[in-house]
Design brief:
mainly alpha; Growth Hormone, Chain: A
């Protein structure tokens, strides 16, 4: 493989990783403004809303090292593919929730699978050399910036 095609493959990998992180972060940020309406519709309290928002972040906290260990064992691509499918399932459940329980299930699943950000970050270090690593990490920072803009 020539150096140009290797760089092109690495650039594609970085773009895919960037997309994964953006999707994970949008899965958090885009849902937060509508959660109060869901909670109100289901007759729950503001405390319930707070717990629901916290569940997502707590699951990310708990599962981030788990996904990291699994990605070391089974490969980063495999874990990222699995977790992005899980994130999609969690968002679909959240979007179609007809009960408070289903809403909690969707948010918890989304948090579990969105914990793949650490795996994506590790993959960035795998596909970049030392000279270009800051560019890759900058893309991760940009993904966070896009979501919170």
């Amino acid at each position: 493989m020539t150096n140009t095609s290797e760089n092109s493959k690495k650039d594609r990998s970085l773009l895919i990783l960037f997309s994964i992180i953006v999707i994970d972060l949008i899965g958090f940020g885009v849902v937060v403004p509508i959660l109060p309406f869901y909670v109100k519709q289901f007759g729950a309290t503001a405390s319930t809303l707070g717990i629901m928002v916290a569940c997502y972040s707590a699951m990310q906290f708990v599962f981030s090292p788990i996904w990291g260990k699994l990605s070391d064992k089974f490969g980063r691509k495999n874990i990222l593919t699995f977790t992005i499918a899980g994130t999609c399932a969690g968002l679909v459940i959240t979007g179609n929730a007809h009960s408070l329980f289903a809403l909690f299930v969707g948010r918890i699943l989304s948090g579990i699978f969105a914990a793949n950000i650490s795996v994506a970050s590790a993959y960035v270090t795998d596909v970049t050399d030392e000279e270009n690593r800051s560019k890759g990490m900058g893309l991760i920072g940009a993904a966070f910036g896009i979501d919170f803009y």
